[in-house]
């Protein structure tokens, strides 16, 4: 048993000695290659310094808002239910097409982003679209100099998409994919709190701010209109019906007055001539009853519309100057030198291992 213990101890000592010897060999080998490693570090530092000059700073515009969507309705819901039990159709329910979670995806949708890209922004006293601003900022027109078809394409603010060509749609789509995949971030800060934050990154401070505000404006309008569309349509129909019945009632009242004038001092024996007046009285009573019910439904529909209209309250807006992310000259040099030196050391180790195998 002692013999086995001594053998194991000897093996452990030999293994530890081998490891130390190998470590020393690698250490002396890398020291012998210090000129190559330093040269790689200098080249990497130069590349990092050049990159810090070339790379444009990234500006981040952040906007947060709270979404209040009355789903329960409380006492109002009970009142509307009671009204429905009496046969009053007041709409109710609102549009449930979008929840607060789906609102995040709505911000990233192609239709909303492209609609925002066609929104106007003022630069130097001139109104241009955000799409034109993006193209100019990224020097796309310089790349289109050889292509006359692309060079002549221009995106006007609030322009209709019906006349767009395939190439024009493709360019707008490419801008959308660039923004949605790299520069546009939408997230809910906390699952328990309905506060949504939007971050837009770009190399233009004005574009980041303008695009963020325009996107929130367009999405908010679309969201509110969609959520309250059913109630709004119901209210408009009731308004139209109320106006029609009111006109019919006024006409019936005028008809009764004319009929009464025609039968003034009429012989009581001539009852047939009093029929138009009697019919007019019936129309007046019927239209009065209908108008009363329509007025009730219209007022309840207005209450329902206010209930179904969600509130989007902006909390924080992007304020100039925006937070900027850039690589300084010192930071770029250090990072470039470190990574280049590390890669060179790794390459030397791999080369030596291959030589030892062969």
UniProtKB/TrEMBL annotation:
Keyword Transmembrane helix (UniProt): yes
Transmembrane feature ranges: 26-51, 334-354
Keywords (A to Z) from UniProt: Cell membrane, Membrane, Transmembrane, Transmembrane helix
Pfam families reported for this sequence: Wzz
Domain Polysaccharide chain length determinant N-terminal positions: 30-116
InterPro entries membership: Bact_polysacc_biosynth/exp, LPS_length_determ_N
Subcellular location, record wording: Cell membrane
Membrane topology, as annotated: Multi-pass membrane protein
Origin: domain of life: Bacteria
Protein name: Wzz/FepE/Etk N-terminal domain-containing protein
Organism per entry: Flavobacterium frigidarium
